[in-house]
Amino acid sequence: MKKPIVILWASFLAAGVAEVLFFTLIDPGELYFLGRQVELGPLATYSIGFLLFWLLTATSSAFTCFLLRTSDETNHAPFARR
After folding, report:
1. Number of domains in the chain
2. Radius of gyration of the chain (CA)
3. What is the pLDDT along the chain (82 residues), one digit of tens a residue?
4. pTM for this structure?
5. CA–CA separation, 64 and 1 (whole Å)
6. Domain annotation covers residue 72
7. Closest by alpha carbon to 54, among 3, 12, 10?
8. Are the CB atoms for 81 and 39 separated by under 8 Å?
9. Is residue 59 part of a domain?
10. Does the residue 33 lie in any domain?
11. What three-state secondary structure class fits 37?
12. CA 79, chain centre distance (Å)
C-alpha cells in the first residue's frame, strides 16, 4: 500500500509544477485541440490540464517503480514449488 501512495504523492507534486510552468506560458483561452479552439472556461481547462499532467506523471512514476523491482520480485511465481 505504501508504493501507490508514494507514486501518487510524488506525481501530484510534479503535476503541480508542470501545470504552473505550462499555463505560465500558454493562455487557456488560446488552446486548440485537434484543430478546434477549446471552448471550456479557464477553471475547467486548468482542472483538466492538472488531471492530465497527474496521469502522465503517475504513469511515469509507476513505470519507474516497475523497473526498480528486484530479480526475486520479478521472478516470483505465486504457485511455484519451493
Report:
1. 1
2. 19
3. 788 898 889 999 999 999 999 999 988 888 888 888 888 888 998 999 999 999 999 999 999 888 888 877 777 766 655 5
4. 0.77
5. 17
6. no
7. 12
8. no
9. yes
10. no
11. strand
12. 33
